[in-house]
Each structure stands twice: as structure tokens, then as C-alpha cells.
Amino acid sequence: MTSPTEIHLAVGDILYREGDPNDCAFVISTGEVLLYYEVDGKRMPCERRCAGHIVGEVSILTDMPRSVTVEALTPCLIYRVSAEQILENFERIDPVLRACVDTAIDFVARFNVQSVAEPENVPMAPQTLRNADQLLSDFRFELDIKNGLALGEFFMVYQPVVSMADNSIVGVEALMRWQHPTLGGVPPDKFIAVAEQMRSIGQLSALALSQSCAALARLQMLAGPSFFASVNISGQDIDRPDFVDLVAHALDQHGIQPDTLRLEVTETALVPDSAVAERNLARIRALGCGISVDDFGTGYSNLAYLKSLPLTAIKIDRAFAADVNANPVSRGIVKMLLGLGNDLAVDVVAEGLEDADTAQELRALGCGFAQGYFYYRPMPEDALAALLSGGADAIGVA
Length: 398
Ligand code: C2E
Ligand code: MG
Ligand code: MG
Fold this sequence. Notes:
Blueprint: E1 5-9, E2 14-16, E3 24-30, E4 32-39, E5 42-50, E6 54-55, H1 57-62, E7 69-72, E8 76-82, H2 83-92, H3 95-110, H4 132-150, E9 154-163, E10 169-180, E11 184-186, H5 188-197, H6 201-223, E12 228-232, H7 235-238, H8 243-254, E13 261-266, H9 267-270, H10 275-287, E14 290-296, H11 305-308, E15 313-316, H12 318-321, H13 328-344, E16 347-350, H14 356-365, E17 369-370, H15 381-388
Parallel strand pairs: 10-12, 12-13, 13-14, 14-15, 15-16, 16-17
Antiparallel strand pairs: 1-8, 2-7, 3-6, 3-8, 4-5, 4-7, 9-10, 9-17, 10-11
One magnesium ion binds at residues 294-295, 315, 317, 351.
């Protein structure tokens, strides 16, 4: 999927010409452009558009060549949005809303203001992108992610998962970190959401898989061949036809036994809503990798999906696990989830345990595995390696 691209135009530069193919739209970040068409070689200006406007979207939605030429009236910074991305989102919107948009587009397609005025007298188009500021900041952020990937600013840290029976470390959850040159440490909750929205999460998942498998191969030398790594992946990964090949390649490249790699996906993302997703989930299990339901209990109220999915572990979200002692509702939910895990014969991992009382209670309720600051914080591979070799205390970095 294409990432946004920054385009700089000087005065008089042409963004596209009347009759060009409709392969993308553009969001104007700064500057001003003139839209015009030609009749018998004469320029007929239609309107001006400036920062926060979009251009080129109509020809994508009508599947017609460009109906106007767009020329920069001032220096401009513009972001390109692929037709593929727009059409995919358009398909997803409510059908009634889509019909409204179709009607509006039809109206616009038939409406032409004919004028031979000077550019500065041509009317400015009304603002249509209400979320322009957010959209533009997402574009910039997305480009930052792309540059950060190229510059090696992303890396993985590892949070130990312990067996509650004896507090031994049995595996890790791999968590991504981004050290941005000016913003500092950007939390994954922020950049993962933008990468998903801009549909470029695949590059981050590929990095997580390859770095985690490389680290796992080294950690297994210290901790034994059954030591596992859980890698977080997005619902969009499951929907990609090439995703299982990517996983197989990472396993192969680092000589990892498939059953020591677990793919962690949130509940909502696990409910297959496409043939590709359904096939991929089955292929992941056929490959031998584990599938863990992350943040279990927070996403989806209809548990019917559990019947058809090849799961190997469920992770009880911190929202329930952390206040099992203090809140009777959380306690009830935790007991129910532990019972469910038992019936489904899958591992249950409690997330986000921060104190001894909570850990003690979860152990008493029969929870098999846990992770949380009470045990260990996420840490770089070398700190974990030292810990597994018995040579370091367990201070990690959050
Ligand atoms: P998650 O997969 O549920 O990961 C657990 C989060 O809880 C991590 O936050 C971890 O640092 C934090 N945590 C662990 N123990 C404790 C504790 O005792 N107390 C508290 N308060 N927090 C604890 P982090 O690393 O900020 O990641 C947040 C979320 O971002 C993750 O939630 C996951 O959904 C996503 N994420 C992280 N790395 C990746 C990645 O490589 N790929 C994808 N797709 N998502 C990722
Ligand atoms: Mg997780
Ligand atoms: Mg979680």
C-alpha cells in the first residue's frame, strides 16, 4: 500500500493536466492552486484551492480522467493520497452515505463555472475537508515513520512472561519502540494507530517479526529451545495475502521452531471478515505458530468466534487482571476467562500485574502465566540475555 508522498511545487508548476489518468488525489498543506480547463485553447479558470483543500478526488470516484488542470499560484507543499486508498475507504462507508456522495459527485460533475477572469478573481472553493488539520498531521507523522524505518529508529524491547508456578521466565512479549530524533520516545499506542490508519503497518510488522525472530534464536541458546516470543501483529496483517509467507521467511531465516513463535492479535482483529483472513489464520496454525488473543475481554462481546479459531493462548487484559482484588466485576470476569481458557485447553496469560497481592490472587485462581511490572519491565535484548544468564538484576525500561 502506498504511503503519502510529499510534493513541492513552485509557482507555475502543474500538478496534473486535464485528461490525465486518475491515479491519486492530493491534499494541500501549504500554498494555493488554480483549477482550470481549456476550451479552444483558451484557459477557463474554475476556482482556487488552498491549504486544507483536497484536489483530484472527483475523477477517482467517477473513474474519469482529470477534468481540470491544476497549477500552483504560490509555492505549495502537497501530499499525495493513492486512488487505491480512497476507493478502499469509500467501499467501506455506509451505503446510504455512499449514495449521498455519489449524488453530490454527479452534481459537481455537471456543474462548471465558466469564467475567463484573472486567477486572483477566481472564487476560492468552499472548505470541504473538515479534518484537514488531523489528516495533514497524520501524513507528516506517517512520513516520519517511513523515514524512521529507513534510519533505524525503530527497535524491539522484550517483556518476560513468567510461569506462575515458579516465577521462571518462559518466554517474552516483543514490544516496539520508536526513538524519534525530535519527539523522543513515541509510544506504540500512538504510532501503531497512525500506521494502521495510513495502511502501512505491514512494514512495522515485518520489522517486528524479523528482529524478534533474530533475538529469539539468540535467547533460545541461553534459555532453551522451548523459550517463546510473542509478536504483536495488526488485523491488517492478517488480511494481507503475503503475510504468512513473511512469517515463514522470518522463521526460516533465523532457524526458529514455529511453535516457539506466537502471533498476538486483538479480539476484534481476529474475527475473520474476509476469505484471505480466514485462510491466513488456518495457514498460520498449519505452519505451527501459536495465535494469542490479546487484550481478551475488551473487544468483542460475541464469543462465537472462539469456536472456529485455531487459538493457542488468551491474554487477560490489564483492565481486569490488575484489579482482581479490588473490583468484584473484574474478579468475576477473570474467573470466567480462566474457566474458558481451561475448557479451550489454551494457555492463559494475565497482563499488567504490578503488585504481589494481585499476582498471588491470580495464582490462587489458577492462572498459568503472567507478565507485568511486578515481575519485569520490557527491556532491551542484552539486558534480558544478562538476566537469563543469571548475571543481572531485573531492571528494565518501560
Ligand atoms: P499490548 O500488546 O497489550 O502490550 C502490553 C502493554 O502493557 C505494553 O505497552 C507494556 O509495556 C505494558 N505493560 C506491561 N506490563 C505492565 C504493567 O505492569 N503495568 C502497566 N501499566 N503496563 C504494562 P506498550 O509497549 O506501550 O505497547 C502498547 C500496545 O502497543 C501493545 O499493547 C500493542 O497493542 C501495541 N504494540 C506494541 N508493540 C507492537 C508491535 O510491534 N506491533 C503492533 N502491531 N502493535 C504493537
Ligand atoms: Mg500484546
Ligand atoms: Mg495486551
